[in-house]
Amino acid sequence: MRESERRPRTRARVVRTVLGGWRLALAIVEVVAIVANFTYVLGFSAFGVSNFFCYFTIMTAIATVPTLVAGGVFALRRPAEPRALAMLRTVVLTHLLLSGLVFGIIVSQASTRDYRIEVPWSDQLLHFLIPVLVLADWLVDRFAGPLAVALPWRTVLWAIPFPTVWLAFTLWRGQAVGWYPYFFLDPAQVSGPWEIAMYCAAVLVIIMSMTGALVWASRARCLRPA
Predict the structure, then answer these.
(1) Helices (H) and strands (E) in the chain, counts
(2) Considering the chain, what is the average pLDDT of its residues?
(3) Interval 129-179: pLDDT, tens
(4) What is the largest CA-CA distance in the chain?
(5) C-alpha angle 139-140-146 in degrees, rounded to nearest 5
(6) CA dist 108 to 115, 132, 181, 186, Å?
(7) CB 150 within 8 A of CB 214
(8) Residue 47 in 3-state DSSP?
(9) Is residue 159 within 8 Å of 94, Cβ to Cβ?
(10) 125: DSSP letter
(11) Is the separation of the CB atoms in 212 and 156 below 8 Å?
């Protein structure tokens, strides 16, 4: 093999190895953040333990852990990842970014209404730092690593089922127990069903837009001349 061909392959192996270790480390940090956040909310006597696992952020964080582990193992052991795993990582990234965006809006809105929301370090990890680090991993993998597979546009559709199922369960459970994880899903805190529908439609647009942007970026890299 000529030297000019060997160098890109060596660089690709180095990038994949670094990404593999990075993802496994991120999975550990995610677990620590989940456990720490659970421990934090246990300090509130009025908080139901079962409610903790109904937050979209927590459900997404739990799903992120095996996704990062799978991505890390494949990066360490294979020169490229399967298309299905690339799609899954993209969908999970979208949900992570969504949870951070929504939480940031809620915190900022609370501050304008003289209502203070505590943001412990575990929440900062879950909502802000980890989504940014996972996004950085995705970008490095796509633009600094070996040429990755182009994500199909149907990835956008695969980003919808999980939030839809979560929403249906949350509305059903909220009506049964009288508790909702977010104010915009609580009929008592909004003007009516139409406002809930409006918020949900806005979230759907955000999900599809973010996933679409990631898919476009992946395809642009693959179509770019060498």
Answers:
(1) 9, 0
(2) 89
(3) 999 999 999 999 988 776 677 899 999 999 999 999 999 999 999 999 999
(4) 70
(5) 115
(6) 10, 19, 17, 19
(7) no
(8) coil
(9) yes
(10) I
(11) yes
Q: Helix crossing, 161-177 with 193-223: angle to 10°?
A: 160
Number of folded domains in the chain?
1
Count Cβ atoms within 10 A of the Cβ of residue 98 and give its class: 0-12 exposed, 13-18 middle, 19 or more buried. buried
State the average pLDDT over residues 28-51: 90
Task: Please tell me the distance from the alpha carbon of residue 211 to that of residue 205, in angstroms, as a whole number.
Answer: 10
Percentage of residues of the chain with pLDDT beyond 70: 89
> What pLDDT sits at residue 142?
86
Structure confidence at residue 226 (pLDDT) = 36
In terms of residue numbers, what domain contains 50?
3-223
d(CA 99, CA 101): 6
